[in-house]
Design a protein that fits this description.
Keywords: Cell cycle, Cell division, Chromosome partition, Cytoplasm
Low-confidence stretches: 4-9, 11-20, 233-279
Order of helices and strands: HHEHHEEHHEHHEEHHEHHH
Strand content: 5-15%
Largest sheet: 4 strands, antiparallel
CATH topology of the largest domain: Arc Repressor Mutant, subunit A
Structural class: alpha+beta
Number of helices: 13
Oligomer: single chain
CATH architecture of the largest domain: Orthogonal Bundle
Helix content: 25-40%
Pfam family, one: SMC_ScpB
Organism: Bradyrhizobium ivorense
Distance between the termini: 102 Å
Protein name: Segregation and condensation protein B
């Protein structure tokens, strides 16, 4: 008579099927098609609505992202939205296109940095931080890039417009959120700020909250048109160099936000050089 141990060894082991945490190939194909067909990045909620019921969109995105990681095109998330981008190590292939784009002036880079870190901020507040007058042309250039937008109006005499950055700004500099902007130590480490800073100097920590603050009121119809048609406050002495400002030299603009060694990010109360006084 067989022992109990022998009987147990002869019995087939019970199969334990692993938890199915992988998206089905057909689901990945649908997700891939949606992302490729869109001309703009898509948020997770929109993708979930377009996918069949029961699909775990978060896991499907993670799986698709992993599959594309070693390829020439990567699935990336920018400004909390998903899109396909050329792999970072292949950016040299785009050199010809990038050299044909126009450059941002130093003044525009400084203004962009101030808006990014201090938003919501008015033009007068930008001038106070820079220590020089900011021409309307500089603001216009940044509006044309789509990296800044008028948020609302400050509840102060004159009701000045307040400015903030856009999702286009996050996308341009490959930031998932404004919280990814470099902090004080990072800026000092890259040489964008002097290591010997005044006592109490700090770099603001902007948030992605688009809700108007207590000291802001909503824009009214025609406010944007008024901004575009408003005459310049002073002669556009910088019109020649700054009219050329647009998209990249993106690497220069990144000096104002993420990374660069070309320019100093004016995130605090640094004044402008004498060459900017011509504005």
């Amino acid at each position: 008579m067989a022992s109990l141990a022998e009987v147990r060894m002869d019995e087939p082991e019970e199969e334990v099927s692993p938890v199915d945490h992988m998206a089905r190939p057909e689901e990945l194909r649908l997700l891939e098609a949606l992302l490729f067909a869109s001309s703009e990045p898509i948020d997770q909620a929109t993708l979930a609505k377009r996918m069949p019921d029961g699909v775990d969109i978060k896991k499907a995105l993670a799986q698709l992202q992993a599959e594309y990681a070693p390829r020439g095109v990567n699935l990336v998330r920018v400004a909390n939205k998903w899109t396909f981008r050329t792999a970072g190590d292949l950016s040299w292939l785009m050199t010809r296109e990038s050299t044909e784009t126009r450059k941002l002036s130093r003044a525009a880079i400084e203004v962009l940095a101030i808006i990014a870190y201090h938003q919501p901020v008015t033009r007068a507040e930008i001038e106070e931080i820079r220590g020089v007058v900011t021409s309307k042309g500089t603001i216009d250039v940044l509006l044309e890039t789509g990296w800044i937008r008028p948020r609302g109006r400050r509840k102060t005499p004159g009701r000045p417009l307040t400015f903030g950055t856009t999702d286009g700004f996050l996308s341009q500099f490959s930031l998932e959120a404004l919280g990814d902007l470099p902090g004080l130590e990072e800026l000092k480490g890259t040489g964008l700020l002097d290591s010997r800073l005044p006592t109490g100097f700090s770099v603001p920590s902007p948030t992605d909250d688009a809700t108007l603050r207590e000291d802001e009121e909503p824009l009214e119809p025609g406010d944007t048109l008024e901004l575009l048609l408003a005459p310049s406050a002073e002669p556009e002495a910088e019109a020649a160099p700054e009219a050329e400002a647009s998209a990249p030299e993106a690497t220069e603009a990144e000096a104002a936000a993420p990374d660069s060694t070309e320019h100093e990010a004016r995130a605090g109360d640094h004044g402008d050089e004498a060459e900017e006084k011509g504005e």
